[in-house]
Amino acid sequence: MKKHISTNLNCIYNTLNLIEENYDQVISIEALENASNYSYRNIQRIFKYTCGETIGSYQKRLRLEHAYKMILYTNYSLSSIALKVGFANLASFSKAFKQQFHIAPKEAKTQKVPLLAKANIFPVETAQLLHPEMVYVNPIKVYYKTAFIDYVDEEIELVWEKFMQNEFPSHGNEFYGLVADEPLIRENLACKYDTCSSMPSTTEKLPFKTIGGGRYAQFIHLGSYQNIEDTYSSIYSGWILTAKLKFGHSAVIEKYIKHPGNTTSEEEQATYIWLPID
Length: 278
Fold this sequence. Notes:
Helices cover 42% and strands 20% of the residues. By secondary structure, it is an alpha+beta fold.
C-alpha cells in the first residue's frame, strides 16, 4: 500500500512540474501521460482527488495568477499580458480573469493600492524600502514534498515537522521552501508549498527536482520565521511596486541559512528570500 501511495504522489509531482513549466502553452495528452505514467483519464482522476481541482482548472488558475502578478508588478499592456500567459486574445482573457477574481483586468490595473490594503499591506515610506542584492542562483537538486496549505506560520511549521520525520544528513545539508502561489491573489485556494532538502532522506525515497538556475532578487529575513510576513509586506508593498524589473513565473525560494536545526536562538535565525527575475 505504501508503495502505491508513493507512486501516486510521484505522478502528481511530475504532473505539477510539467504544468508549472508549461502553464502558458497547450499541454498535450501524450505529455501528461508520459510525465505521470498513467492514462489521461486516470491522471485526471488522481490529480482531482489529490489537488482538489482538475488539471485544466489548475493550469487556467496559474495563467490568471501570473497575469495578476504582471498587472500588479509590471507596466505591460493588458493585451501583452493576455498573450504572455497563453490566452488567444484580450476578450477571452478578460472574461476568465473576471470570473476568477470578480474584477475586470482594467479595474485591477487601476486598483493596485486598494488590493494591497485589502490584504492589510500598505505602501511603506521610501526610507523603509528594502534594497535586495541581485544574484544568480545555480541549479540546485532538491528532494521534496508538496503540500497545499494556508501560508501561515502554524501550517508551515506542521509541514516541516512532518517533512523532518524523514531524517536527513545533519552535515552539509541545506533546506529550502518553495512558495508557488502569490498570497495576495490566490483567493481562498490553498498555497502550493514545497519543503525541500538538498540531500536525500535516509528513511524514505523522496521525489527530486532542480530549482534555481536563474537571476533572483535576494532579500534576507532576520529572526524568527513567525515574523517573516513583515519582510514580505515590505517587499510587496514597497520595493516590488517601484522596481523596474521583469519578474519570472517560477516559485519564490526561501533558503533557511540559520534555522532551529543549526542554531538555538530565534534571534540568530536567517532566511534568504529569492524572487525570480526574468
